[in-house]
Amino acid sequence: MAKTNGGIVVFVCNWIPAIGADNAANVEATYPPTTTVLSVACTGRLTPGILLSAFEAGAEGVLVVGCAPEECHYVSGSLRCGDVIEETRELLSLVGIEPGLLGFELLSDVDGGAFAETVSRFAAEVDKVRQQIAGERA
Amino acid sequence: MPLLASAGHSARAFLIDPRVAGMVCKGVIPSYGSSRDLYTLLRSAGDRVSTHPRIGIFLCECGGEISNRIDLGKIAERVRSLTGVADLATQPFWCSPGGLAELGRRVTDGSLERVVVAGCSPRSHGNLLRDALGQVGLNRNFVQIVNLREHCARVHPDQTEAATEKAHRLLKVGLAAARQAERIETIEADVNPEVAVVGGGVAGTTAALSLARREVTVHLIEQAPTLGGYLNHLAKLYPRHADAGEFVRARVQQIQKSDPITVHLNSRVTEIRGHTGAFEIVMEQGAEQKSIAAGAVIVATGAEEPAPEGRGERTLSLTDLESRLRTGDVLPARIVFVLSAEGPTPGNPASVAVIAQAALECAGAIRERHGEVALTVLFRDFPAGAKEAVQALAAGGVRFVRYSPERPPVVSNLGVEVEAFGNGKRESIEADLVVQATGLAPSGGTRRLGEGPLLWQDEDGFLLEPHLRLRSEEVLDRGVFVAGTAHGPADIPTSMAQAFGAAAAALALIRTGKIVKHALVAEVVEDLCRGCGRCEEVCPFGAAELVLRENGVKKSQVDRVLCVGCGFCASECISGAIRLPFLTDRQLRSMVTAAALEG
Lengths: 138, 599
Known about the structure:
By secondary structure, chain A is α/β, with parallel strands linked by helices.
């Protein structure tokens, strides 16, 4: 099991979620400061290797936020990413990391409140999973 | 190519990869894609990657927006001593003219190789900062923006300590990005000032004439021996009942008179290749093959109505009927129109709407010229706006029967069996002629060109353009535009409007004369490429393709003009042969590592 003193890495694509993240600031929405948003051109650019490297470095959880498939600026990016997420979850299971700690959300509009809520919800989910794991071990 | 290219990233292929297998065996997670990293290291001898660049960190208070919520002083203290940090300064507004000048001065005086500006979103002032630093010779990619305002200060109010911790982490991410940043170039490509229009129907001729009026040289390519396209099958044109034959004759004359238009008849376009500003349109003229160069292409290859089942003397398609009306043939005494509820493209309600419009138009023409003919229209639904036409026809003695979609009318030898919607009353209507209005489907040409890499098809085979309205300044129009029914079912005014739109877009592109864009593009490392072609498969933009080298080996090649930097090819490549210099895997991984750790 990887170190678990880290934060949550949030990958966003450079379009809807990235604009949503900026808008979150503009509508005074909030989310936990343990999160770090990283922007890539398209979530379809992510690979299992990159997602796993976050866990390797000690991230508590990894959330990938992309555009809804019909809004994807690169046509099939969100769908590609969906496949990559599936694979990565399988790999996580293989190395003994709870696959639920890798989240995947697709947004269809740039509403800042929705972005903040998505991130907050995932952070709460990660807490829950971590507590559950700790409980099972105790 | 199909719109939704399969991601093709099969779990099995992944699991047989030795690197992943190794990971599973050892129970640890090594860096996947290590050959790519090795390559980067090997190249780092040059100036692309300087392992210890001199970095300047510039913190922005944003007039208190940031400094009131984050302790910038504390951050400055903590990052000052980090590897490579050669300069550090804080200002209320780096984006101000004074701030920008100061930035430039510090870069020059301190011989800074990388700059991290921590302030607002890169969407706000990213380009301003990059352009300003570009003037003192700093590459765009060597300027990394850390979004302290939107990603931290504003979303974590009233928790200065936690926000400061996070800001520190964000800066470490920015530093990681800056350390590994590679130089990106500016791409320049010439734009051919000529435009090719494929398809000589209403949309194609409209676009060609519109461009010719602006003195643009146009190649109008038509596969038939005459211009006019679908218009050659129609009698009257919606909405003003103009005579289609007259319309086409006038069009042809106009085109013959306009010098900038070269018409290529009997020419079947088989392929459009090349890239924005430099396309090659390959066509067959009989047994000969010929190609034309153009800077932009307008595809107006149209749609067609599929032949109805049992087409013959007593069953015609709507298009067949229109052709008959055009030649003024004698019509039989009893005609029944059956308007399809679904059409050949069930996903496309416009198909049914357009055909219903056309059927009403036909019924009106028949009523006007052949008052003695008994007309019945079996329909499922009419488009909004058809009410008046329906009422006028009904008043003129045309019978309308609405059927339920579960029980569509059945055509027999004698006529049509129909069950009325609502009361379920069945009746058989005798007819001498049944006109089946089924809807529009993509024409052969539309389907053929849609298979190519530069165009996208929707689920019905109609052509799609990329979402041009949403492209950032970094991404150019691709230069292949679609107009008319190749896009989807449309009436003539809509087709013409689309043609004007496509002509305007093509004009805007060729008037730029030169394409200049920042190289946010993928790069192939040929020595690592094993020519599997997965990049070509997943590229939605037709930018990656396998080419045969002289020694008989296939290697991937990325067209830098077409590439938009989505990175699918790089993520798909199992050899690590495709890199994204603007954000390499190695760079992204070190950013991820910095982001994963708290504090």
